[in-house]
Write a structure and sequence with these properties.
The protein is globular. Strands 1, 2, 3, 4, 5 and 6 form a 6-stranded parallel beta sheet that branches. α7 links the parallel β4 (115-122) and β5 (146-147). The protein is an alpha/beta fold. The chain has a single domain, classed as Flavodoxin domain (Rossmann fold, 3-Layer(aba) Sandwich). It contains 8 helices and 6 strands, in the order βαβαααβααβαββα.
Length: 208
């Protein structure tokens, strides 16, 4: 049977969202998916990035590990999982810039029916995790993606995360995602893969 193709596009500055993205990928691979991980790129110059301690250094390191997402990646995928830190209760500019760049595929209808899901992180409690995930649902609907939330379909959901997607609170970047939060992200990868397989992958014929 064909493997579901899962694209994970994330933006991360201080690794919290990156660690969630890696856990989503682990879950998807464990469920039999072929995975591409891509990091959205900065939209400001180095002079601006140097004003935030560690931003330029972390970006340089992560950009060496992950390719930039392209239109071809989105066209390739059966499922697209977006990950973002919270920026004033909404999606990061860097990830939104990539989504905005998918207009050509949208116009051709090439994103219709693909699976879509979201995860994210914030630096403080009540910093906008849920509002951020929900804010991404809107462009996903416009793109024609079939939105897959997590609900409470796994025991991990009763310890961490949200029904809208995996989340984490870094407490001003002092705390990395723990095993409970990573378990939710792995479940998200498995769930997305399962739905993508049902929608897009031909079943092997049953022997007579």
């Amino acid at each position: 049977m064909q493997k579901p193709k899962v694209l994970i596009v994330f933006y991360s500055r201080n690794s919290s969202t990156e660690l969630l993205a890696k856990a989503v990928a682990e879950g998807a691979i464990a469920a039999g998916a072929e995975v591409r991980m891509r990091r959205a790129r900065e939209v400001v110059g180095h002079d601006v990035m140097r004003q935030a301690p560690g931003w330029l250094e972390n970006a340089t390191e992560m950009n060496a590990k992950y390719e930039a997402p392209t239109e071809a990646d989105a066209e390739w995928a059966d499922a697209i999982v977006f990950g973002t830190p919270t920026r004033f209760g909404s999606i990061s500019t860097e990830l939104k810039a990539y989504i905005d760049g998918l207009g050509g595929l949208w116009f051709q209808g090439k994103l219709n029916g693909k699976v879509g899901s979201v995860f994210g992180s914030t630096s403080s409690r009540h910093g906008g995790n849920e509002s951020t995930l929900l804010s991404i649902y809107t462009p996903m609907a416009h793109l024609g993606l079939i939105i897959v939330p997590l609900g409470y379909a796994d025991a991990a959901m009763f310890k961490a995360g949200t029904p809208y997607g995996a989340t984490h609170v870094s407490q001003l970047d002092a705390v990395k995602p723990d095993e409970d939060h990573l378990a939710v992200a792995r479940f998200q990868g498995r769930r997305v893969t399962s739905v993508a397989r049902s929608l897009h992958c031909a079943q092997e014929p049953v022997a007579a």
